[in-house]
């Protein structure tokens, strides 16, 4: 009887342990399933948002611009690091005019060149995407430190200047951008941005008003 009692108690203890382990495993599996479902949903939402955007333009000079800016920034950093040594070596010569010339040359290639290069390339659009659901455009440019900047706008935010400035095709939300028409996947996107689909205004009213004023 004692043996039977011990066997039954051991079996009950094992069964209770197994049931507790089974419950814990099931609860962990449920939590993992919930996390997996949430992850899959977030991942699917991100992929859907990326699939919604259609790339309509790519700037062909993007690799060259990045390479030139990298070279310019590295040369500027090297110039800053070497400037104390150059000034010290130039001071040993004893000529003030030579020291001024050396410092001005080093300062030009260290500071002026990267700023001038950024002024020229900051308007260049490296990539442009279009969202057909919201009818919005997303233009990507490069800032001074080679980081990508995105600008979202619509056709209503675009203004084409009568006299385009240097490296400027149109303004989007007041920011000048430069694109090349031949590198659009579909010329209709360029025509829509430039307002070629809108009725043309020949400004005949202004000519008539000027003639009346002359009379």
UniProtKB/TrEMBL annotation:
Keywords: Membrane, Transmembrane, Transmembrane helix. Signal peptide: none annotated. One of its GO terms (biological process) is mitochondrial proton-transporting ATP synthase complex assembly. One of its GO terms (cellular component) is mitochondrial membrane. InterPro entries: TMEM70 (IPR009724), TMEM70/TMEM186/TMEM223 (IPR045325). The keyword Membrane applies. It comes from the Eukaryota. The chain crosses the membrane at residues 98-120. Belongs to the TMEM70 family. This is Transmembrane protein 70. It comes from Diatraea saccharalis.
């Amino acid at each position: 009887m004692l043996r039977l009692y011990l066997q039954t108690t051991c079996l009950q203890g094992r069964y209770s342990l197994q049931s507790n382990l089974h419950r814990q495993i099931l609860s962990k599996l449920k939590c993992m399933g919930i996390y997996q479902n949430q992850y899959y949903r977030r991942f699917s939402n991100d992929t859907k948002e990326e699939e919604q955007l259609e790339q309509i333009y790519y700037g062909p000079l993007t690799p060259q611009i990045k390479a030139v800016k990298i070279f310019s920034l590295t040369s500027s950093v090297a110039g800053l690091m070497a400037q104390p040594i150059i000034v010290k070596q130039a001071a040993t010569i004893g000529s003030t005019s030579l020291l001024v010339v050396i410092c001005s040359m080093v300062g030009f290639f260290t500071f002026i060149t990267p700023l001038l290069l950024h002024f020229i390339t900051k308007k260049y659009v490296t990539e442009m995407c279009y969202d057909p659901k919201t009818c919005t455009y997303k233009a990507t440019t490069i800032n001074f430190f080679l980081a990508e900047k995105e600008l979202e706008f619509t056709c209503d935010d675009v203004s084409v200047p009568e006299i385009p400035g240097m490296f400027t095709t149109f303004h989007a939300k007041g920011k000048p951008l430069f694109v090349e028409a031949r590198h659009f996947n579909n010329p209709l996107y360029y025509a829509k941005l430039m307002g070629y689909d809108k009725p043309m205004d020949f400004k005949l009213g202004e000519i008539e008003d000027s003639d009346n004023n002359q009379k």
